[in-house]
Amino acid sequence: MNKILVVDDEEKLRLLLSKIISLENFEVYQAVDCKTALKKLELKEIDVVLCDVKLPDGSGVELVKTIKEKYSFVEVILLTAYGNIADGVQAIKNGAFDYITKGDDNNKIIPLLHRAIEKVNLQKRVQQLEKQLANKYSFSSIIGHSKAIKTATEAAKKVALTDTTVLLTGETGCGKEVFAQAIHAGSKRSNRNFIAVNCSAFSKELLENELFGHKAGAFTGALKDTKGIFEEANGGTVFLDELGEMPLDLQAKLLRVLETGEFLKVGDSKTTKVDVRIIAATNRDLQTEITNHQFREDLFYRISVFQIHLPPLRERIGDIENMALHFLNIFAVKANKPTLKLSNSYLQALQQHHWKGNIRELKNVIERSVILSENNELTIDTLPIDIQQSQNTSSNQKQLSAFDLASAEKLHIQKVFNYTNGNKTKTAELLNIALTTLYRKLEEYKIS
After folding, report:
1. Please, where in the chain does CATH 1.10.10.60 lie?
2. Cβ(16)–Cβ(109) under 8 Å?
3. pLDDT (0 to 100) of residue 435
4. CA-CA to 107 of 20 to 30 Å: which in 95, 229, 316, 337?
5. What are the residue ranges in the chain where pLDDT is below 50?
6. Which of 240, 98, 265 is nearest to 166 (CA)?
7. How far is 163 from 404, CA to CA, in rounded Å?
8. CB under 8 Å to 234, separation ≥6 — which residues?
């Protein structure tokens, strides 16, 4: 219920207005002067103030300014017995929603209140969406408590505060773009554009045009000057995904942007200067690419000023449950199945899977299971067939080896290794064996 504050020292009028407004299903509060009104605003989440211009301890026109400075979303409608243009103009300048005359405009009060409430609700909704958007792309969106992901997140938080170029490495699907967005959101450029481009999605010519833009007449169909990503992101951040796929001659142009902040549009003879931060990502070993003459060594050293390696999902087994629950909540709401949960066997199957596609694969698997689920719990039969088969094979092996000492030892080591999120030193301590012995056992049993 929206809350209205009526401020007037005339008791009869104040009580009458309060009664009329309450009949419109508003929660109404009253104040006799500026001091009391400000106290009410502190204690109650007021949406609209209906205020007399002349009050015992001050002017309603000046009160508007004070209210808007402290409570920007609160709308104020001023009432006056003797309206004058000067007060009306100043009231609007101070942030009043409207300025009306008592008596003559009484029939306007209720419609005016509804319009003011609409504005308040819209402002609140915008603020809520802005917060959701900020949370979506902030470091709080990175899920996981494993040592590897914590290390990566802490490094990203530190570099976000600078303008340093960042290179994110790791397998496909391990969350490189999420990290890039979080770094941008945590930087001083957060209120400017973040533009991502996948370097493997375009041919050389198209990628050059996408990055740098072109001049009119540069090629057939180029009817006007067009900005590229670097120009559109001026003042913000450019995320170059799959950087290892970029052709060598474009790598040279990228190097120039990094070194001088300048580039040539396609078909232009005059350089364009920009101020952008570059975050790049690759799933390739760029050192190997340099050896094979597929990547420029000078660009590598310029773009890898600050490297962050993102671990694959199979090295973050302890994070799988939280990730699965996160995706489950998202897809359950979309599918109108809000009470879904994970069965123990389903979660165990997820934790034992190799996850070649990493987080992206996990997300897709959860979405598939939500669609196929027929009760309030995700079960193994909703998993893709390859995961089901590997789970059945694993179960059979356990049954056949129930009394085999080596199998029991392997199973125990695997459980402890999973419990420590792959921390070998901690695993060795819990198992009460030497670290060298653990390494030998991990290799012998092919545990990773």
Report:
1. 401-448
2. no
3. 87
4. 95
5. 396-403
6. 240
7. 57
8. 192, 193, 274, 275, 276
pLDDT of residue 41: 94
Please give the sequence-ordered ranges of beta strands (E in DSSP) within 326-380, or none if there are none: 341-342, 377-378
Q: Write the DSSP assignment of 212-252 as a string of letters.
A: HEE-TTSSTT--S-EE-HHHHTTTSEEEEETGGGS-HHHHH
In a 3-state reduction of DSSP, which class is residue 160? helix
- End-to-end Cα spacing for the chain: 56
Q: Mention the CATH class of domain 313-392.
A: mainly alpha
**CB neighbour burial string for 335-369, b if at least 16 within 10 angstroms, e if fewer:** eebeebebeebbbebbebbebebbbebbbebbbeb
Residue type at 306 in one-letter notation: F
Secondary structure of residue 184 in the 3-state scheme = helix
- The β-bridge relationship of strands 75-80 and 48-52 is parallel
List, by residue range, all CATH 3.40.50.2300 domains of the chain: 3-132
Q: For the range 385-391, what are the long-range contacts, defined as Cβ-Cβ under 8 Å and sequence gap of 24 or more?
A: 387/349, 387/353, 388/349, 390/352, 390/353, 391/348, 391/349, 391/352
CA nearest to 50, candidates 25, 85, 15 = 15
Element (H, E) at 309: strand 306-309
- Give the model's pLDDT for residue 398: 47
Domain 3-132: top CATH class:
alpha beta
- Could you give the angle at the alpha carbon of 58 between the alpha carbons of 55 and 59, nearest 5°? 80
Q: Where in the chain is the domain with CATH 3.40.50.300?
A: 143-311
Rounded Cα distance between 4 and 72, Å, is 15
Residues 6+ apart with CB under 8 A from 248: 294, 295, 296
The residue written with tokens 């799959």 in the block is: 242
Q: Can you give the pLDDT at residue 438?
A: 87
Q: Tell the residue number behind the tokens 């698997």, with chain if given.
A: 365
Amino acid, res. 94: N
The class of domain 401-448 in CATH terms is mainly alpha
Numbers of helices and strands, H then E, in the chain: 19, 18
143-311: CATH architecture? 3-Layer(aba) Sandwich (3.40)
